[in-house]
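thread from #wetlab-drylab

HS: before we spend reagent money on co-crystallization trials with phosphoenolpyruvate, can we at least see a predicted complex? here's what I'd submit
DV: go for it
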Amino acid sequence: MIVVLSKGVSVHDKEMVRIYLKDRGFSIREQSLGEDEIIGASGKGTVDIRELSLLPGVERVAATSKPYELASRETKAEDTIVSIGGAAQSSGLVKIGGSRISVIAGPCAVESREQIMETAAMVRESGAVILRGGAFKPRTSPYAFQGLGMKGLEYMKAAGEAQGMPIVTEVVSPELAVQMKDITDMFQIGARNMQNYELLKKVGALGKPVLLKRGPSATIEEWLLSAEYLLASGTQDVVLCERGIRTFETYTRNTLDISAIPVVKALSHLPVIVDPSHAVGIRAKVSSAGLAAIAAGADGLTIEVHPRPDEALSDGPQSLYPEQFERLMRDIEALAPVVGKELLRTPLPSHGGCARHTEEVLVQAGDGTEAKEPGDTPAAFSGESGAFAEQALMRVFGEEAPRLRCPSFRAVFDAVLDGSAMAGIVPVENSLAGSVHENYDLFLRYPDIAIVGELKLRIVHCLIGDEKADLDTIKIVRSHPQGFAQCRDFLDKYPLWQLEACNDTATAVASIAREGATKVAAIAGEAAAKIHGLKVLKMGIETNPLNYTRFVIITRRIGEKVSVPPSLGSESPNKASLVFSVPDTPGSLFACLKILSERGINLSKLESRPIQGQPWRYLFYVDVNIPGSEGTFDTVIEELKTKTEDFRFLGAYRGSL
Ligand code: PEP
Ligand code: MN
């Protein structure tokens, strides 16, 4: 049973609740859960829940049907997002949970300073955000390599700091936990120790984030009860890790329990990651199992990678070669939007190379003189809460980032230009319905706005209506015109429905929430239905499930400089967007394309669009991949300018797959 205390409860009232519960035979644990202060009461005591609810300082009493309470979704409906690192000057703050996929990678064991330094650099380069490695190795054989102990941990810390990555390492005894506390960013409780309750209590009490592996023979309930031990002892930050269980099958090292992922995610608010390396135990099969885990809803992976797996002192056969890991990361990035998530990337140190096309990169917001994180100034999007653009914004800047809601795309451009937003996010193209011309037109009208990033979001549309509405009561459907275009096949089945265009999909939903009519429905995302308390009448009505919208992140140019929000990282841009027109003479477009072709530059988009006020003349919208070789791209741009009219460089940025 969970007693949620009122905000600002007095010390006296809290004590009275404690006494009340203890007198009735309960043992109690105190904890804060999200914003709430709670008292968990367990044991064989009996209580009149109504009487308890009426005590001063009690907000509500939740009787859970599960033996674990703090870990249960019944107690806390929203996903827990665990933060790791960040305190030490050089390790970044990394989050696990929510709409991100976070990948932990590193060797099974720290073998030497050089080995962990080399591995850290490699996995970081491929996109891992946390470094793993065992310093104390619980091995099946007492004669096998047992790890370098505290020295190994020091090496790992140095490697993490060198790459700006937090570290996670296994703790095998309560005494060591205390020694390791100030060095590691996250403790790992190994599979063999999942039910070592003294260890769980000690580690939990240290208050640091914990990665809790599932025991090889543990049921899901036993696993969650171990998480409960950690939460009840004091830490708030537990990440569950499925790493394969023991079954009759002997081909693989263990059997990866994929079904545990959706099951645990429904039972608990804690993030769930998967360790396919220990589950499968065979290098060639690790990546497929990892991708399956992501498809099943895992919040991340932990992967063993070794620069030379054949020489590894432990778990070489299951350790990926760096190239295999890099390939896996690319595959995860491509898969992430399908499951409505984004692969978490943290800024890499700049490699120099191609700059953002002769524009100096300025990591600051507005025209301020100091670097600003989104914590200071909001990022702008167009629409109501629950709009797809808001989801895209949260993917880029984080769920807690301050947001500025704007009534139109134009207002987003204005907010970025006048500095009331440090960045904006606008859709430019949908894979079913095509370009959002309004935004391309705005780029032409706002030469001081530049594209600095891109995000591809999977769009799943729902028909949303009032609790009492159904498909037969609907007469009017509201959405953004893009929403109608993306659901054409579905709408064609209801030719009598009248379509009303709105500024964005979430605004359509908000209008129904206000009117409460059963004859009006909206086409929008599920998030908008939840936020506005409406019912999803039909889910997945887009014409094709491969429905993606490309959003771009925009900021303000100041002279030749462009501000890049720190959360976008500082990797060299690999994509650029241009707009130009060409003279009305034979071969003039061909001459432009020839410049790109001769330099081996790939076009990822070429679209023509009428020029307003000049009938039968066209602008070309062009996206190109930026070649790796330094200098080439600047020359290409200069040459293109000589062959075009009205050349506009919209921005150079890191493209999403
Ligand atoms: C490890 O991650 O290094 C490890 C030993 O894993 P497990 O506890 O899952 O066997
Ligand atoms: Mn291992």
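DV: Residues 108, 278, 304, 314-315 surround manganese (II) ion (ligand 2) (CB under 6 Å).
HS: ok that's useful, forwarding to the group
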